[in-house]
Amino acid sequence: MEELSAAEAESQDSRAAVSDPQVPVIATHALTKRYRGGQLAVDGLDLTVPAGSVFGFLGPNGSGKTTTIRMLMGLIEPTSGTARVLGRSMPRGSRAVLPQVGALIEGPALYGFLSGRDNLLRYDAADPTADPRTRGARVQAALDRVGLAAAAGKKAKAYSLGMKQRLGLAAALLQPRRLLVLDEPTNGLDPQGMREIRSLIRELASDGTTVFLSSHLLDEIEQVCTHAAVMAQGRLIAQGAVADLAAGARGRLVVTTPDVTEAARVLKEGGVADVVIGEDRVTGEPPEGEPADLNAALVTAGVRVRGFGVERASLEDAFVALTGEGFDVAG
Ligand SMILES: Nc1ncnc2c1ncn2[C@@H]1O[C@H](COP(=O)(O)OP(=O)(O)OP(=O)(O)O)[C@@H](O)[C@H]1O
C-alpha cells in the first residue's frame, strides 16, 4: 500500500475526526500563554466548542481573547496545555486544519486601490488549491453571499468599515469552511453596520458552519450566539449554552407601584439586595425563597402594587453574579 505523506495523513485524520458531531470543533485543555515580558495572558483555559454552534468568546479588553485565538490558529505556541481544532492538535496540525477554517482576525488586509472584486480575485489566486478556471464564479458567489455584488467594482478604499468587514468575510468564504473564526467582527462599526454583520453571521451559521467569534459586547453575544464562554483576566469564568448561562443567574425583581419609597423599605426588610428606586417602580436582587411572600408583605404594608415579577436574567446578570462586578469595558 502506498504510504501517505505526513500532511495527507493529518488531513485524513482531521476529516475523520470532524465528521463526527460528537468531536468538539475546538477543545483546549489547560491552555496557557505567558508572554516573554512575563504577562500571563491566558491561564489554564479549558474550552469546548460544539459542532454547529455559534460560539461567543466574551471578555473585556485585555482578557486574553486574541491571544487564545492566535493559539487556536497556530500563530503562536502555547506556553503549556493543548489546543485541538477540528480534531487536530495545534499548531502541529495547521497544514491540515487551516484550509478548513475561515478567519477574520484584526481586520482584513485589503488593497485599497483595488476593487472589492479584484481583492477577492487576489485572495483566491493566493490559494494554491483554488482552481483558476472556476475563480470568477467563486468570487461572484462570495460577493453575493455577503451582499457586496452591487459594490464589487468600487475601490476598497471607498468602502465603509462595515463593507470592508464584509469583504473580509467574503475572502474567508471563498472555500467551503467547517469553522469561521472572527475576532471582534463588529468592532468600530456603527449600529447599522453591526446589525448587518450580525445578521450575516446568523445566516452563515444556518448552514451548519461552526462560528467562533470574540466580542467584548454582552448584548452582541446574546443576540447572535447559541453558546458562550466568559473570560476575565485570562481565565475562563463560565461556558455553556447562552440560555443556560443566563438561567443560572437569578433575574431582577421588579415592582411597579406609585408608593416607591414604602415599597423599597418593605423589600429591603424582606431581604432584597441592591434596591433601586425608579419613578414608578422599584427593582432589586430577589433573596432565596418564595417571591410571593414579598408581594404579600407589600400588600400588608399598604403598598399599591400594580405589577410584581422577576425579569428573565440576562447574560449580564450572569456575568455580574459570576464575577461580583459589572461588565465594565473600556472602548
Ligand atoms: N505580544 C504580547 N506581548 C506581551 N503581552 C501581550 C502581548 N499581546 C497581548 N499581551 C497582553 O496579554 C493580555 C491579553 O491580551 P489579549 O490581546 O489576548 O486580550 P483581548 O481579550 O483580546 O483584548 P483586546 O480585545 O484588547 O485585544 C493583555 O494584558 C495584553 O496586554
Q: Uncertain segments of ≥5 residues (pLDDT<50)?
A: 6-18
What are the distinct ligands in this entry? Answer: adenosine-5'-triphosphate
What does the main sheet amount to? 6 strands, mixed
Distance between the termini: 58 Å
Overall geometry: elongated
The number of helical segments is 12
**Portion of residues within helices:** 25-40%
Global mean pLDDT: 86
Written account of the structure:
- Pfam families: ABC_tran (PF00005).
- Residues 1-20 are annotated as: Disordered.
- Keywords: ATP-binding, Nucleotide-binding, Transport.
- This is ABC transporter ATP-binding protein.
- One of its GO terms (molecular function) is ATP binding.
- There is one protein chain.
- The strands form 3 sheets. Strands 7-8-9-4-10-11 form a 6-stranded mixed β-sheet, sandwiched between helices. Strands 1, 2, 3, 5 and 6 form a 5-stranded antiparallel β-sheet that branches.
- The protein is built from 12 helices and 15 strands.
- Strand 1 (26-34) and strand 2 form a beta hairpin.
- The longest helix is centred in the middle third of the chain and has 15 residues, at 191-205.
- Helix 4 (116-125) crosses helix 5 and helix 6 (161-172) packs parallel to helix 7 (191-205).
- With 331 residues, the protein is α/β, with parallel strands linked by helices.
- It binds adenosine-5'-triphosphate (ATP).
- Adenosine-5'-triphosphate is lined by residues 35, 37, 39, 41, 59, 61-67, 216.
